[in-house]
Amino acid sequence: MYHEVVKELLDFMKESGKSQQQIAKESALSTSVISQFLNQSYKGNNEEVARTVLQYLDMARLQNIKAKHSCFYEGMHNTRAVLFACHYAHRHGDISLIFGDAGAGKTTALKHYTEEHPGVVMVTANSCTSSAASILQMIGSRTGRTLPGKKEAMMSDLVEYFKDTGRLVIIDEADHLTMSALQAVRNLNDQAGVGVILSGNTRIYTQLLQGPKCSELQQLRQRIVVRRMVRNEYGLEEFKAIFPDVPEDCLPYLIKMANDESLRATVKILELAYEFADTDNISKKILQQVRMQLTGGL
Fold first, then answer.
1. How far is CA 141 from CA 60, 147, 180, 268, 281, in A?
2. Residue 25, CA atoms < 13 Å, CB-side half-sphere
3. Which of 19, 121, 131, 170 has the CA that lies 20 to 30 A from 193?
4. Distance between alpha carbon 203 and the CA centroid of its chain, in Å?
5. What are the φ/ψ torsions at residue 171 (nearest 5 degrees)?
6. For residue range 211-222, what is the model confidence (pLDDT) as tens digits?
7. What is the pLDDT of residues 53-74, one digit of tens each?
8. Pick from 82, 144, 161: nearest CA to 114
9. Do 202 and 97 touch, CB atoms closer than 8 A?
10. Is residue 188 over pLDDT 60?
């Protein structure tokens, strides 16, 4: 079995383009063990390593299947709203706000803008990076810079780096940011003139524009001229473009699913339905069956 598994692993690496380091990382085996196993020079229990490699390959092959039955559609109304906000903030060095339903395509559109415009820095906040120091450090890291430890020094470094560059900083999941972090972002915009996108769920809109009228928030509110909302509400023409390979009689059901849940959930259920059917002939019945199994709803 040992020699057969070595060949299987080599074939998989060739097909997937994954390196020994990546295989080691994904399989929880050390790089040296993978290297010696492939070179047939490992002095340990080769059969045990072979079993681990086979277990890894079983799942890795499934994960490596990249069948995709949806595509990015720049003309979708949510995407247009996000791209407009990005273009405005980028061009004018202002702060734009994007907010609304989860799974409605905000992040996908933001990544598209980042890929299409050199120099754009996109970071994603979370509950562990909600402070001013954390978000500044994250922005610095994305630019390849190692910032000093104190918040004031971080700000000074980033202002010097971004000043007069005409660049854009995108902060996704910005609803995680504390008041102090939002103030730090405003200061970066003020002092460096760099454009800023704050994108998040409806909480960030409430926090920034409907919260207490304190002076700190007022300064930020006054800078946010462009505010774009995205919703999980879709039309037939949009779905024809997003799902070009899906039979047209399935599209109304997909639209209802997306309106009820989210576009993101709909894409995932669709891909699982194709996997479940093991054919390109998808149907509303198959979609309903998969959705019932996954979510318990029709």
1. 30, 8, 20, 31, 46
2. 5
3. 131
4. 19
5. -115, 105
6. 665 566 777 777
7. 999 999 988 887 766 889 999 9
8. 82
9. no
10. yes
The token duo for 65 is 């299947």
Q: Summarize the confidence of residues 92-100 as an average pLDDT.
A: 96
Q: What is the pLDDT of residue 91?
A: 97
Rounded mean pLDDT, 129-146:
92
Q: Do the beta carbons of residue 96 and residue 85 sit within 8 Å?
A: yes
Write the single-letter amino acid at 282: I
| Length of the chain, in residues | 298
Who contacts 82 (Cβ-Cβ below 8 Å, separation ≥6)?
98, 105, 106, 109, 110, 113, 199, 228, 230
From the CA atom positions of the chain, what is the Rg in Å?
A: 24
Residue 242 to residue 282: CA distance in whole angstroms? 16
How far apart, in Å, do the first and last CA atoms of the chain sit? 46
Write out the two tokens for 61: 């092959």
Tokens for 83?
A: 């791209």
E-only strand ranges, 106-177: 121-124, 168-172
